[in-house]
Structure formats: structure tokens, C-alpha cells
Write a structure and sequence with these properties.
alpha+beta, disordered N terminus, 24% helix, single chain, 41% strand, 19 strands, elongated, 506 residues, Porin
Length: 506
């Protein structure tokens, strides 16, 4: 802090300069006195008197300078006191401002914590179990243009000869609940459930994957998790289908369904165990029991008073297992192989078996790209989403009129997908899938499925889409699909499908 000296200090400096001049004059006079003189001794007395007067004046000026010097010291001390007082005031003001800021921050944190506590208490009030419940989902609008006729306009899986369709739908909107449960036996529990509005409005056309009314249960999971082991039960796609193609326009029926993607949601109960020396890449072993449903349109061929599936009539559950190595997260290399087996019994008393061997993989590539896919080979896979909507062919036993025999249809298929994450907000996906049943088997046996799918031998789908996410809660997509279907009793049919989608996640 800058301070100006008082005017008295300037005066003192002027007096000091005068004193210096007086002393100089006195010295000059002394020298002159002792120099040789031409006058007599009479001048000596006058010179001594002059010298005495000069010394007296110098002494007076020196005393005055000393007094002024003391005054200056006192003023400097007072000035220091004022500066220290000003500094203490500034420091106190800064401390006060800092304290005020800390108080405001504490108030904001207290308000935030109060809001979180209120939300937490609300969740606990809404959940009878007193454990946290989170509502999730996505409001999804999708529009479509089909150049030729398809089986389901909004989510087509089979192309049929005929005129195309256009329209829009919000029935693929998904609602979900995520739940955290108690700790039990050293592990923590969690669960979730998802539903959409894609149920059937026609009670005469309900099969294994439809429900009367718009609201339809999609998937559900409950698990007890330890460090490397998980015991669970679920309604979801089989553990053989570890990967899933990406699409925002095919949600109610997953992408490449009935074109190589074994997607169907079936009740399962199983155990998963991870082991290995590396935390990044580990071995995973999974095993489960599964209640396999009948193909969705084969169920309609059975009498209405016969609600049980062919797998349930066998009184034995199906079994599935899978072994994989690699990263078990959403990214990283992974290679897996699996197997499935399930007994079935029909209303005609005949018994047959469904089985499958599967291979799945995921390979990251340079440039933020990823290559993934699933393949299968088996028989009677209509209940898993393969086999062209069919499990078996039904033939009359010529040696025993009125009786029938069953022939499970072989099935082979799979899909591959190339994904590129151009940015954090934009990704591109291109996929090809195919599912087929040998045409020779179909010609020999009339199927028990509905007529649209009776002689369907192969479905093939190529799809490419771009998904843009301007935020974590908004998604937009443009997709193109080329759907081709082949039957043994009709020319092949195809349809070009252009779809758009806009989703809001919550």
C-alpha cells in the first residue's frame, strides 16, 4: 500500500541541506583563518567571533534536524500501524468471503442430499420390499416402408408376394423395472423385467410368443451374484446366443429374427462361473435348464384345450450349456461354443428330440470396428427361433392307418455383423443373416404350422443402419433391410424395407 510523506518531512530535508552549506562555509572560514594574512593581529579576533557564530548556528540547525528526525520516525511508526491495520482488515474480509462461500456450498450440498434422501425414501415407499426400484425404458416411434408384402408390416421377418405397405407404430415402446435385492449367502441379488405393447389383439391368433391385449412380457431376470459365480433364472434368449445384432427399428421382434438369430424368450434357470488367471480374459462356463416353447404358429394347429407345449408334454426340461473364452464385458475378444438338447412329445403320441451345436465370436478390429456373429446346426429348432418356424414334419403311417409319425427338420443358419463406432455419438452397423431347412425334407412332409410358413424353406436378411445419439437419452436411426424368402411350392419373394426410428430413453 503506497503512502505519501508529510510536508514536514520535505521541510526537514531542506533544513538538512542548509546545515550542510553552513558547515561547508565554516570550514572554508577556518582555512582562511589559518592562511597567511597581510593584515595584523586585529583581524584575528573578528574571525574567531565569526567562527563562533557559525558554530552556534550549525548547532542550532543540527538540534532542529534531530527533532525533525524523531518526528519522522514517529510518523513512520504510525504509518506502519495503519498499514498493518489495513492488511488485517483485508485479510478478515477475504476470510469472511471464503467463509460465506463455504456456507453457501454447504447449503447446496444439504439441499442436494435432502433431495436424494427424499427420492430414496420415495423408492422405498413404492417398493414393498423396501429395496431400491428404478423405472427404465424407451418410448420408441418407428416408421416403415415395405416395397412388397411381408408377414408383419412393422417388424417383418418373411417376404410374401403382394403389394407393399407403409405406416408407423409406437407399440415397440419398452417399459422396465430394475431392482436391487438383499445380500444372501455372501452374494448380492438383483432383478429386472421388461414389457412392451406388441401383444396380439386377436385372441384367435395367440401362440407361444403372443399375449391377448397390447401389453406383453418380454424378458425377466433374477440373479444371486458372487465374485465369479452367478445363480439365476430368466425369461430370455438362450445362453447359446451370446451376441445380438444391433437395430433401433427391430425391437419387439429382435433384428435378424428367423434369419439366423436364435432369439426366442424362454424360461430358464442356470449357473454361470468365470475362472482364469487374467481379469481381462477369462473362461466362462454356463449351464441351464430350459422350457422350450413351440414355434409361434405351430401352436395354433393344436386344439385349444391343449395348452401344453410339446416340450412340456415330454415331462423333461431341455438342457443347454456353453463354454467361452475372452472378455465377458461388452467389448473385447470372445469365442464361445455351446450345445442344446430337449425332448418333445406331440398330441399324436409321437416323440422327437431337438438339438443344436452353436459357435459365437466377437473380434475387435482397428478403427473402432468390431466383427461378431453366431452360427448353429441342429434339428427341430423352431422353439429357439430357427428352422423356418417349424420343428417337425408329420406323416401318416401307411402300415397303421390313422396313426402318424414325426420327422424333425434339420436346421442350419447364423449371422454376422460389422460394427463401426465412428464417434461416441454415431455408429454404423451392417449385418447378414440366414436360416434354412432342407427343401427335400419339406417336400416329403406337410408341416403343422400355419399356411404362410408351411413350406417356407429359407429366409435371408441383409440390413444396414446408422444410429445417432445426440445425448444419452435420445436416439435416432435410419435403416435399410433386404428380406428374401424361399418356399418349396412358390417363387421366391423379396421386399426392401426402409425404416426410421426415434427413441427417448428414461
Amino acid at each position: 500500500m503506497r503512502r505519501n510523506f508529510p510536508e514536514a518531512n520535505v521541510a526537514w530535508l531542506s533544513n538538512f541541506t542548509g546545515l550542510r552549506r553552513t558547515v561547508s562555509a565554516l570550514l572554508c572560514a577556518s582555512l582562511a583563518m589559518f592562511a597567511p594574512q597581510s593584515h595584523g593581529q586585529a583581524d584575528v579576533a573578528s574571525k574567531v567571533q565569526l567562527l563562533t557564530d557559525a558554530l552556534n548556528r550549525a548547532q542550532d540547525q543540527l538540534s532542529q534536524a534531530q527533532r525533525q528526525l524523531q518526528d519522522l520516525r514517529q510518523q513512520i511508526a504510525d504509518l506502519r500501524v495503519q498499514v498493518d491495520s489495513a492488511n488485517r482488515s483485508a485479510s478478515a474480509s477475504a476470510e469472511q468471503q471464503q467463509l460465506s462461500s463455504q456456507v453457501e456450498a454447504l447449503k447446496e450440498n444439504q439441499a442436494l442430499q435432502a433431495s436424494e434422501i427424499a427420492t430414496h425414501e420415495q423408492d422405498k415407499v413404492e417398493s414393498e420390499s423396501k429395496y431400491p426400484v428404478k423405472v427404465t425404458g424407451m418410448v420408441l416411434l418407428n416408421g416403415f416402408v415395405n416395397t412388397n408384402r411381408v408377414d408383419m408390416p412393422a417388424t417383418p421377418t418373411v417376404a410374401i408376394s403382394g403389394a407393399g405397405t407403409s405406416g408407423a407404430s409406437l407399440r415397440q415402446t419398452v417399459l422396465g423395472l430394475d431392482l436391487l435385492g438383499p445380500h444372501l449367502l455372501g452374494g448380492h441379488s438383483h432383478a429386472d423385467v421388461r414389457a412392451d405393447f406388441f401383444g396380439s389383439t386377436d385372441s384367435s391368433n395367440t401362440g407361444a410368443y403372443d399375449a391377448v391385449g397390447l401389453l406383453r412380457l418380454r424378458t425377466a431376470h433374477a440373479a444371486l451374484v458372487w465374485d465369479s459365480t452367478e445363480a439365476w433364472f430368466s425369461l430370455d434368449r438362450p445362453i447359446l446366443s451370446a451376441n445380438e445384432p444391433t437395430s433401433l427399428t427391430a425391437v419387439a421382434v429382435p433384428p435378424l429374427a428367423w434369419s439366423g438369430n436364435l432369439w426366442t424368450w424362454n424360461p430358464q434357470v442356470g449357473v454361470t462361473h468365470d475362472f482364469g488367471a487374467s481379469s481381462a480374459e477369462r473362461f466362462r462356463v454356463e449351464g441351464a435348464l430350459i422350457d422350450v416353447a413351440d414355434p409361434p404358429y405351430a401352436a395354433n394347429a393344436s386344439p385349444a384345450v391343449y395348452p401344453a407345449s410339446t416340450a412340456e408334454q415330454s415331462r423333461w426340461p431341455g438342457v443347454e450349456a456353453r463354454v467361452a473364452f475372452g472378455s465377458q464385458e461388452d467389448a473385447g475378444f470372445r469365442l464361445g461354443a455351446g450345445g442344446y438338447f430337449a425332448p418333445h412329445r406331440t398330441i399324436y403320441g409321437s416323440q422327437f428330440y431337438s438339438w443344436a451345436g452353436t459357435l459365437d465370436y466377437r473380434q475387435p478390429l482397428p478403427g473402432r470396428m468390431q466383427f461378431s456373429g453366431n452360427f448353429y446346426r441342429g434339428a427341430a429348432l423352431g422353439g429357439l427361433g430357427g428352422g423356418a418356424y417349424k420343428d417337425y414334419g408329420l406323416g401318416e403311417d401307411l402300415d397303421d392307418p390313422g396313426s402318424y409319425y414325426i420327422r424333425p427338420f434339420d436346421a442350419v443358419g447364423g449371422w454376422i455383423e460389422m460394427k463401426e463406432r465412428a464417434t461416441e455419438r454415431l455408429e454404423f452397423n451392417a449385418a447378414l443373416g440366414m436360416d434354412s431347412v432342407p427343401a427335400g425334407e419339406l417336400r416329403s412332409y406337410p408341416a403343422v404350422a400355419a399356411s404362410t410358413y408351411q413350406y417356407l424353406a429359407r429366409t435371408q436378411t441383409f440390413t444396414g443402419n446408422a444410429i445417432y445419439s445426440p445425448s444419452a437419452w435420445l436416439q435416432f436411426s435410419l435403416e435399410y433391410r433386404r428380406l428374401e424368402s424361399s418356399s418349396v411350392n412358390a417363387p421366391a419373394a423379396s421386399s426392401n424395407i426402409i425404416g426410421v426410428a426415434a427413441g427417448y430413453k428414461f
